[in-house]
Known about the structure:
- The complex is a heterodimer of chains A (107) and B (120).
- Helices cover 0% and strands 50% of the residues of chain A.
- With 107 residues, chain A is mainly beta.
- The radius of gyration of chain A is 13 Å and the shape is globular.
- Chain B starts with a strand and ends with a strand.
Amino acid sequence: DIQLTQSPSFLSASVGDRVTITCRASQDISSYLAWYQQKPGKVPKLLIYAASTLQTGVPSRFSGSGSGTEFTLTISSLQPEDFATYYCQQLNSYPWTFGQGTKVEIK
Amino acid sequence: VQLVESGGGLVQPGKSLRLSCAASGFTFDDYAMQWVRQAPGKGLEWVSGINWNSGSIGYADSVKGRFTISRDNAKNSLYLQMNSLRVEDTGMYYCVKGNGIAVADPFDYWGQGTLVTVSS
């Protein structure tokens, strides 16, 4: 199975900060990577797919990059509604796997 | 898009449950569908996926041989038959829509989930 390791697991940041989350795959997954946001008590929301394609309706402050084994999710200017847990997911080969999550909290 | 799960509940280890997901607001047979679970306080775990015509199906290693995914396009419904349930199968089970026909398409809409608790 392909393992996804996110770093950091926990992030404390302030409104307006630029935030970067990294997702590393245990083997080459090309660009078959998605990012999801989950707020407490809510269902996950698709933010980015194919490593860098912004899902319709997602604010442009979110961006994704990378290919192969290293990927990043960047929030250019953190907003109050962005405090949540973020997961990466690979869709290159079965079984689809998620990273362990990165919790973004208010400093 | 609306995805409404049902069928969860409290069940003893070794028993079975069948989850259902009623889909509406989109052309069901144009999209792959998935089941994803989340144990209390834990991360996301993909369980199973099925493409638009049931021609491609995948399972997580942890459920392979015990769970069976199926769909009925005439009824706009997705199912998950769960047999030989284990304590570690406990969690919220989400019905999820893919954004295309293939099982490898990303997951763009999630239901609210149905809770499965496996305990003696």
